[in-house]
Amino acid sequence: EVQLQASGGGLVQAGGSLRLSCAASGFTFDNYAIGWFRQAPGKEREGISFINDINGNTYYASSVKGRFTISSDNAKNIVYLQMNSLLPEDTGVYYCYSLNLYGQGTLLTVSS
Which end of the chain is less congested by CB atoms within 10 angstroms, N or C? Predict the structure, then answer.
């Protein structure tokens, strides 16, 4: 069974940093793209960052580019999202995504 287990959310002040983790099981994600969506309160879910270990390509939404960094540990089957210089508008539920599946979300709240 394919599972994506996200963790690492919490409450942080604006300007702070946090790292999200997504542990994948049931498949080896180094053969697939994997990444993160987020859903801010009252807004649609949006894709914010992805990594493709097949060719090393990464993608960042313009709203997070330069502040967030996606990386993966293929030995552990974990993908990370390092988030720096957090803004209140980064608040939302963050979902790990791969193989057309969303994992359960982890909530990030950035206070001003």
Answer: N
Q: Can you give the pLDDT at residue 112?
A: 93
Q: pLDDT, tens digit, for every residue of 27-55?
A: 877 778 899 999 999 999 999 999 997 88
DSSP per-residue codes, 60-107:
E-TTTTTTEEEEEETTTTEEEEEE-S--GGG-EEEEEEETTEE-B-EE
CA angle, 33 as apex, 27 and 38 as ends, to 5°? Answer: 105
Backbone φ, ψ for residue 88 (5° rounding): -55, -35
Token pair belonging to 83:
């988030």
Burial class (CB in 10 A: 0-12, 13-18, 19+), 93: middle
- How many degrees, rounded to 5, is the angle at CA 34 between CA 61 and CA 13? 50
Give the pLDDT score at 23: 94
65: left (phi over 0), alpha (psi -120 to 50) or beta: beta
